[in-house]
Every structure is written in C-alpha cells, then in structure tokens.
Amino acid sequence: MAYASLPLIWSASAMLGAIVGSFLGAALARLPEERSVVTGRSACDHCGRTLGPLELVPVLSWLVQRGRCRTCGGAIGGWQLGCELGGAAVALVSVIAMPDRTALAAMVLGWQLLLLALLDLRHFWLPLPLVGTLAGSGGVLALLRGAMEHDSGPVLWASAGALTGFGMLWLIAAYYRRVRGREGMGGGDPLLLGAIGLWLGPVGTVATLLGGSVIGLLATVALLAGGRKVSRQTALPLGTCLAAAGWPVFLLQGFG
Predict the structure, then answer these.
(1) CA–CA distance, 215 with 243 (Å, rounded to integer)
(2) Please, are residues 160 and 194 in contact by the beta-carbon 8 Å criterion?
(3) Terminal C-alpha separation, the chain
(4) Structure-model confidence comparison of residues 108 and 63, the more confident one
(5) Do 85 and 15 touch, CB atoms closer than 8 A?
(6) Whose CB has fewer CB within 10 Å in the chain, the N or C terminal residue?
(7) How far is Cα of residue 16 from the mean position of the Cα atoms in its chain?
(8) Is residue 227 exposed (0-12), middle (13-18) or buried (19+ Cβ within 10 Å)?
(9) What is residue 86's DSSP assignment?
(10) Contacts from 201-204 at CB under 8 Å and sequence distance 24+?
C-alpha cells in the first residue's frame, strides 16, 4: 500500500464510520421505544420537525448547529454525536491497527459492540436479536475462514470460544444465585460473552472477561470517587464492560 494513499484511506474510513455511527445513534434512540430503525424519517426529539439532508451529515451538522435544533432550539442529545464519533473512531483505528484483510472484520465487530455497549449502559438491556447478529456474524466468518483455508480449525476455534464465554458466565451466575438466593447478572451477559467468543476464540474470551472485570472495577472506583454510594445491590452494566474489553482484544490478537 502506497504511503501517499494512507491519508485518503484513513479519511474515507472515518467518514464511513461516522455514517454507520449515525445509524447506530438512531438505533440507540429507537430500539428501546420499539420503533423501526430502517423506516421513518429522522426528526427533532423536541418539536418533531423532520430533519433535512444537511442536518443528517454526521458530526458536522451537530457542530454547525452547536448541538441544537435550528427550529426550536432544543438540545440535540450528546449520545448521537458520541455514536458518530465512536463509529468513526472504530473505522479509523481498524484500518490503522489491522492488516487489510481483517480491518473490515474489526469494523463490523467494533460497530456491533459499540451499539450493544451503549444500550446496556443507558438501559441495562442487551437485545437478543443484536446479540444473535453478533454471534451469527462471528460464526459466518469462522465458516468462511475454514472454507478458504480448507481447515476445520477456525470453526472449532470459534466454537470453543463461544462455549468458553457462555460457560464461564453461566457458571458464575449459577453460583451467585445459589449462594445469594438472587440473580447477580442479566441473562444477556453470558450470551454476549458467548457471541464475543465466536470472534475471539477461547483465549481471547478469557482475556475479555478479565479485561471487562478490570473496567468494571475502575468504574466502581470512579463512582466512589465521585461521591456515589456503591453497594452489593448497585447494578453495573457488565455487557458494556465486556464490549469495551472485547474489541481491543480482537485488535491485539486478530482471529488468533
């Protein structure tokens, strides 16, 4: 790859990521309200005015309008901007950090984990269809790699990762329920780690659980430092922590 073409590739990737991030922002707003993410025009959350084409340009439209609707002056939620910037960052880091053949896979994984992380952070909710899509895409990639390499190794590797991820959290949840007499985590968390396992394999899945635990611990420390009361009953979005750890692990190890 010619070095002169790198800035163009990076810019195009960031633009693509911002566009995908805009879609993720719409999904973040609409899915909890059971609205379609593929039909219906985007509109201001305050006055209901349908947004024009220029108002849908990721990031720039938010900056030009200074984060407010040009009609009613209502604040445009920072979550939308965060999704657009996050989507752009996922794409840019993917093309910089990964070889050509795995950069697209890194983007697909990163975008899915970004949406799941934000949904769990905002709503403590991991929609099963989205977790299933994450698992399905990981499984399809494993099958394609196996077919291209004429080897069953990628499929076995992915299957082992899924079993490791789901099994570890299922056992932890079962033990907690037996000892405490109540649920200690959401039912979607083991499924999420199992889906991540299809992408990362068993070693990467264990690393994701360890990394997610560290992120959760740091979040708890931050809450305490901010004056928040944290007890055994305080709910933390484990799915967000796992998603935040899983993508960097993939960047470091690839498909293993």
Answers:
(1) 10
(2) no
(3) 24
(4) 108
(5) no
(6) N
(7) 16
(8) exposed
(9) H
(10) 201/157, 201/158, 201/160, 201/161, 201/255, 201/256, 202/157, 202/160, 202/161, 202/163, 202/164, 203/253, 203/256, 204/161, 204/246, 204/249, 204/250, 204/253, 204/256
CA torsion through residues 80, 81, 82, 86, sign? positive
Q: Are 198 and 105 in contact (CB under 8 A)?
A: no
> Cβ neighbours of residue 202 under 8 Å, at least 6 residues apart?
157, 160, 161, 163, 164
How many residues belong to the chain?
256
pLDDT at 164: 98
Tokens of 174: 């079962």
Per-residue confidence (pLDDT) for residue 197, from 0 to 100? 98
Instruction: Tell me the two tokens of residue 1.
Output: 């790859």
Task: Report residue 135 CA to chain centroid gap.
Answer: 13
Annotate 158-205 with DSSP letters as a single string: HHHHHHHHHHHHHHHHHHHHHHHSS--S-THHHHHHHHHHHHHHHHHH
Interval 142-170: pLDDT, tens: 999 999 999 999 999 999 999 999 999 99
**Per-residue pLDDT, 256:** 60
Give the DSSP H/E element, type plus range, for residue 107. Answer: helix 100-123
Q: At what angle do helices 128-149 and 153-180 cross, to 10 degrees?
A: 150
Question: What is the C-alpha radius of gyration for the chain, rounded to an integer number of angstroms?
Answer: 20
